[in-house]
Amino acid sequence: MGAGPELDFRSCLFLSCWLGEGTAGLRSSWVLLEEKRNGLGKTERGGLSEEKDTRWKMLSSGVCTSTVQLPGKVVVVTGANTGIGKETAKELARRGARVYLACRDVQKAELVAREIQMMTGNQQVLVRKLDLADTKSIRAFAKRFLEEEKHLHILINNAGVMMCPYSKTADGFEMHIGVNHLGHFLLTHLLLEKLKESAPSRVVNVSSLAHHLGRIHFHNLQGEKFYQSGLAYCHSKLANILFTQELARRLKASRPSSSFYPAR
Ligand SMILES: NC(=O)c1ccc[n+]([C@@H]2O[C@H](COP(=O)([O-])OP(=O)(O)OC[C@H]3O[C@@H](n4cnc5c(N)ncnc54)[C@H](OP(=O)(O)O)[C@@H]3O)[C@@H](O)[C@H]2O)c1
Which atom in ligand 1 lies closest to the alpha carbon of residue 81? Predict the structure, then answer.
């Protein structure tokens, strides 16, 4: 099945990532990021710059050409009531998967579930409460999920906070690292056996190019000594990458995990 017109660019890139097609299923076409050298550089679309003094980074973009259908597959998408998570959940439902919208605001998520059901004709779009800023909620989500589902084929750790004022999770972690990384870390850990049993399975951690600016400050992990909201976001996105790499290394024998960078 080709990508529907309503499937946005980031979801296309994302879907190719977790369908395991890497960049092969994508048309490389769009220069998205420039790295300036000597303060010079310009943004260009349509191909790689020839200029020697500018180093370009190119990401692949385009439509997801995969025709994979997912009947019988079980998927969890965190933060699926809006943005990338919602678009992703919609496309997965369109492909026939049973999709769990793991969201902190159940009312909002129920509306989205109904919308996706209507748009895709797939009634197996389910809402479950998950607040990644509270480990009790994460444990409760996992417990219920493990009780009611025999399999988990795809876990998409998508939810995220960005540049919020200094605040802490219920367990006292700085909000960015707590929600974006630690919350998903715990969730993945709790669901890992189920993922292994369901192999081939996959974990997708939604990171960001912002991770390039991240540094893990172990002496100030909770931002108590100093705090800058943008950097806190970057650190958490770097943590996503490091987590993904280590998870992939540990799961080498079963299935690799994936990291995904949306289009910005
Ligand atoms: N958009 C981009 O251009 C971009 C670029 C790079 C990376 N990303 C990454 O892509 C992911 C999704 O981004 P987006 O743009 O789609 O963001 P978004 O539209 O702001 O959606 C974020 C989602 O995360 C949920 N969320 C926030 N805190 C949560 C918590 N404590 N527990 C459970 N869910 C929580 C939100 O729920 P509520 O609706 O209840 O707030 C929402 O569903 C994020 O990880 C982000 O870092 C996005």
Answer: 43
